[in-house]
Structure formats: structure tokens, C-alpha cells
Amino acid sequence: MTLLVEPEVRVGAPLRAVRPWTIAAVFGVLATVLCAAASWIPSLWGDEAATLLSAKRPVGSLIGMLFHVDAVHGLYYLFMHGWIRVAGESAFALRLPSALAVGAAVAAVTLIAGRRGGGRAAMVAGIVATVLPRLTYAGEEARSYAFTAAAAAWLTLLLLWLIDGGGRRLAPGARRLAWLLYAAGMALSSYLFLYFATLLVAHGAVLLASRASRSTIRRWTVCAAGCLVSLLPLALVAYFERSQIAYLSGTPDDPSIWYYFLWFGMPWVAIPAWALVALALWPAWRAWRTRHTRPATEGPRGVSTRLVAATWLFLPTGLMLAVNLLYPMYTGRYSTFAAPAAALLVAEGILVLGRMLGGDPRRTVAATAGATLLFVALCAPVYVLQRGPYAKNDSDWAEVSAVMGANAGPGDAVVFDESARPSQRPRLAMRTYPEGFRGVRDVTLRTPYYRNDWWGDRAYSVTQAAQRGRFDGVDRVWLIELDGQGIQDTWGLPELQALGFAQTGRTISTHRSVVIELTR
Questions:
Q1: How far is Cα 237 from Cα 150, in angstroms, rounded to an integer?
Q2: Which pLDDT value is given to residue 255?
Q3: pLDDT tens digits, residue range 166-183?
Q4: DSSP 8-class letter at 305
């Protein structure tokens, strides 16, 4: 695999002495540490609750659930099932695998950038990828998206190595093994997240642009076809579970303008980042405009980093957005696997800008370093916001648990607002941060999550619970309501009052919830 990186051109002597894999390892570790730092501060949110509760199930219960919901996340849940038995269930432990995955993605980005650009390009790309908001966010989230970014980066690197002729230096058996590894990686990664399969469109475009040999195209076609055929069972189950994403239809959750900020988090990062992307693509556009004035070349040609990154960034996401126009099935985080491509193009734009502002080598290096540091400075506030206590969808479940732990006593009952969206229900505070609820009776629980065919609990209404004697012997109840957009819900309060419970006047507000004390 050392053949992946070509000799560097026009870089300083210190960089020539640094091996590409050393750069990859340094930035991989740096990105992992940056993602893991303070990752325990934001409260877990709805999607992460689904991860935790699914991973905690017995394997048989988990597999049964996957035939009803979340089949597209099944492989990730199985991995997390084993992980939490080793690392525990804390927010830090749940999110650490994603931080490691982002480190792997950043390492691959440096190798792709250094493949033709040398050590300077590898380092700039490594810095950009390390601070890219989409990756720093995915790296502190207990979901599969960070893994898709890592898989996309390494599979793209493997494909480029095969296109560049690395496979021709292998024995026939080893060459077949490399293509088998590519096919298995694509299939496995698509089982990790089904939409990952759209990366094949980008890889196919790279192959055509490279004028690869017929044998190379034939092998890739066989691999792609095998991957797609292997995905048919998952695609079929996902189709029958499509009601899960029905909420994407007509909701303001993802305004279309957000697509343009997709990988960059905030407008103050997105606007200069897209300008750098345009700057990176300008030489390619100019070359395309003048293609008829240059003599045609025969045979295979090298694939530039900007071509690889542009097809990877735009084609899979463009395909998903096109389908989304006909059938709502897309939200911005689904394109996390293209985030490494965004980092490559931003880095390429910085290098182009450095050459434009420079002139002699020393000024070029200074301009490139200055632009890189400016991009880091723009991303820093986004990173800080991502590590706030309510950074994940405004979730405040850790705070709710702390309030209950400080105020509720043994034998008290708790009633949760069940009118909220399933991923926002306060009940999940007890499941994700159980410490504050120890000794408290969950009087409305109907069926616990591990006995359900979906990922969460099922609950009775207050009246139904009372009919089953759940409130017998209870003198104090804590009612936890969702306080969305400053509008306090009153779910369950009239029923509790009808049972003889009255508010004591003690109401504790958290970021997004209200905890109300009632006694008989």
C-alpha cells in the first residue's frame, strides 16, 4: 500500500522527509482526540437513545426488532451491542467509536490528498478534515455516520490505488483479493447505512474519467453488481419500514437552504468553504473549457484529487436529493460519508489560493498556512457549540435526570409526557441517564423496550395506569413535561388531578422540560 503515494513535487525538504503514513497517523490520532474531547457534555438525544436501547437488547430481541424498525442500522447496533459490554453505557463510551472512526477517515484523507499533492497537500487536507464541522459533530454522536465517512475514504483510496496500477504490481491472486476486499467493503458499509451504496455512482464516474483499462472497468462492474445484489434483502426490509422516515415529508426540520451548508455547520464557515470549493474546481472548469484546443490523449490518465473529491461530494448527494423530490427520504446527516470529499476540496482551494497570493515558494507557503489557520479559526466556534450541554437537538435529559436525583425520593412515582414525538419523549431521560431515577416507580410503563418490536418503551395513559392500580400507595408524583418552544404541555396533568393529586407549587424548569411535583 506504500505505492499509494507518489513522490512529492515542489515541497520543502522537511516535508520530503516525512512519510505519508506518518502524516496519516498523526492526523488520525489528532482528529480522534479532538472528537472525543468533551464528547460527554452534550445530552444524548433521540437517535442516540435508539442506539443505546437497541444495543442493550439481547441479540434475539434485537434481530426481531430489526424486522420492524431500523433495519438499515442493524449492523451498527450489533457492533454497539458488543461494544457497550466492554466499554459501558456512558455518553463518552457510546460516542468513542465514532471518534475513532473520524480519526480513520481523516487519516485516509491525508493519503488521498498526498497521493499527487505531496506532503503539503496532505497536511492541509488533514487540518481541514480534523476541524470540519460535519466530522467533528459525527465524531461525538453514537450513530453510524462517522463509520460511513471512514469507510468511504478508505474504499476510495483502495479504488484509486487499483486504478493507478497498484493492482498490476500484485500477483493475480492478490489482485483478485484486493478487488474482493473492495466489493466486501462496499457491501458491508452499505449494510452499515443503506444510502452508502450511492458512492458507487461516484466511483463509476472516477473510473470513466480515468480511462481505466477494460479489465479494470470489468472488475469494478462485477464488484458493484455483487454489492447491489447483496443489498436486495436489506433494501426490501427497508422498503417495508419506510414509514419510519415519513416525518421527512413536509417538515421544517431540514430547510432546503441547509443543504448548502451541509458539511460546514454554520453560514460563517459555509460561505468561505464553498468559495474555496469553487476555487478548487476553477482550474478543472478552465481545462474543460479549453479541451478542444488541446491534442487528444490515448490510454489511461491520472485521476486528480479534485476530480475524485468533486464526484464523491456531488454525485451521491445529488442522487439522493433527486430521489427526495419524488419521495421524501433524505436529511442532511445522510451525506456524512461525503464529508471527507468536502475536506479535500476545501484543502485544494486553500492550496490554489496560496499559489495565487504567493509567487515565490516562501510566500506561497506563508499564504497557504495563513488561509489554513483562518479556516481553523472559523470552525472553532462551531466546535465549541457542538460541545454545549444542549447541542444535540436541544436534548436536556442529563439535566432532567440530575433534577430528579436531587429532588425525588424512594417510592415516589414518575409520569412522563407521552404526547411528544417518540425521539423527544422525556421518558428517554430515564433510559439514557438512569442514575437520577433510582428508587422511583415508573407507574405508566406498559411494555419495556426490550420486549417491544420497536426501539422504545410503550406506556399506558394515566387513567389506564390508575385502572390497573399503579398509583396505589403513591403519595407523591413527579410529572415531566416537554416544554417545546416555550409552550408547556399539560399531558397527564388533568388525569392526575382527577386521581386526587394536586400541584404543590414546586415546578422546576430545565432547558426543554418542566418537572412538576404533585402530592395527594
A1: 25
A2: 47
A3: 766 777 888 899 999 999
A4: H
Give CA–CA dist 369/278, Å, rounded. Answer: 19
Q: Across the strands, what pairs with 445?
A: 459
Please check whether residue 84 is in contact with residue 142, taking contact to mean a CB–CB distance below 8 angstroms: no
Give the end-to-end CA distance of the chain in Å, rounded to a whole number: 72
* b/e per residue 461-474 (b: at least 16 CB within 10 A): ebeebbeeebbeeb
Phi, psi of 10 (to 5 degrees): 55, 45
Helices then strands, each counted (H, E), the chain: 21, 8
What lies within 8 Å, CB to CB, of 193 at 6+ separation is 72, 73, 76, 144, 145, 147, 148, 334, 337
DSSP string, 175-241: HHHHHHHHHHHHHHHHHHSGGGGGHHHHHHHHHHHHT--HHHHHHHHHHHHHHHHHTHHHHHHHHHT
pLDDT value at position 295? 47
Q: Is 515 helix (H, G, I), strand (E, B) or coil?
A: strand
Cell of 155: 474504499
- CB distance 319 to 201 below 8 Å: yes
| Residue pair 346/281 in contact by the 8 Å Cβ criterion | no
Contact predicate 311/202, CB 8 Å:
yes
Q: Are strands 445-447 and 441-442 parallel, antiparallel or unpaired?
A: unpaired
Q: For position 359, what pLDDT does the model report?
A: 80
pLDDT value for 17: 54
Lowest mean pLDDT among 201-210, 256-265, 356-365, 396-405: 256-265
Helix (H, G, I), strand (E, B) or coil at 68: coil
The answer to whether 375 and 346 have CB atoms below 8 angstroms apart is yes
H-helix segments, 1-90: 13-16, 20-36, 46-56, 59-66, 74-87
Output the pLDDT for position 170: 73
Asked if residues 201 and 207 have their Cβ atoms less than 8 Å apart, the reply is: no
> CA 460: distance to chain centroid?
34
Check pLDDT > 90 for residue 186: yes
Using alpha carbons only, give the angle 99, 104, 108 rounded to the nearest 5 degrees.
145
Interatomic CA distance for residues 414 and 442, integer angstroms? 5
CB distance 432 to 44 below 8 Å: yes
10 Å Cβ neighbour count for 508?
A: 17
Q: Using CA atoms, how far apart are residues 263 and 331, in angstroms rounded to an integer?
A: 12
Question: To which residue does cell 469507510 refer?
Answer: 151
Paired strand residues for 447? 458
C-alpha to C-alpha distance for 110 and 130, rounded to whole angstroms: 10
**Helix (H, G, I), strand (E, B), or coil: what is residue 309?**
helix
CB 127 within 8 A of CB 110: no
Q: Write the CB contacts of 458 (distance below 8 Å, at least 6 apart in sequence).
A: 446, 447, 452
Contacts of 418 (CB under 8 A, 6+ apart): 425, 427, 444, 459, 461, 491, 492
- Reply yes or no on whether the pLDDT at 281 is more than 50: yes
